[in-house]
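User: Hey, quick favor. My workstation is busy. Could you predict this chain's structure for me?
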Amino acid sequence: MGSDTFQLRGQVAVITGGSRGIGRAAALRLAELGSNVVVNYIQDREAGDRLTESITALGVNALSFQADVSQLSQAEKLIAATIERFKRIDILICNAGTWEGAPVEEIPEELWDRTIDTNLKGTWTVCRAAVPFMKRQRGGRIVIVSSTAGQRGEANVSNYAASKGGQISFTKSLSAELGPFGINVNCVAPGWVDTELNREVFADKSRLDSIVRTIPLGRIATADEIACPIVFLCTSWASHITGEVLNVNGGSVLCG
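Assistant: No problem, here it is.
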């Protein structure tokens, strides 16, 4: 198999939460392989616009689109805008997420609902909106960005872990449901990643050191180190992989 089989020329990818962190890194990698990219953001329009400029500089087309995917109507508008602009959707990366926790007896109802709505419901809304188009095309790739927290649980972020565990179960269900239509559905489960989401945690050197000690590879992942496995699952090199949870955590959680 030559390098040409790893290309995504002419395909159309939608990335939720795509303007920063893992989403941004994945958008650039997809563009490098020839995919057109729709960058979804919720607030930072400037970051979305800057990213689309970087993507178009790589010789493909890009669209920046504001939508809160925790709301079904806005997820539908995101996918509708994609179809209007590009006439198809080949890749959906469900990356939008929030991470904030507390001891279970202290989690406000609003925080619980916001976490589940953004992380889990926000995955369902875009899949619900995109799948009919993928079915008509008889093919597509969906990659859901979960977390090691969804596999092993983590103290004081039970809301987050529950949402991420839900994403894993959703992945497995969709892979069985959509496989007959030629749609592959997989999940990537990162461990700790050096993104804006975790900067406050890493600012505490003692905590950072304690985290690094739990990672056999001895360091925190970069956003690009998560993005590359995500993009791999979108290529023909992963054509017979579906329903998989790909762990990208430096060995901190060893589970099949």
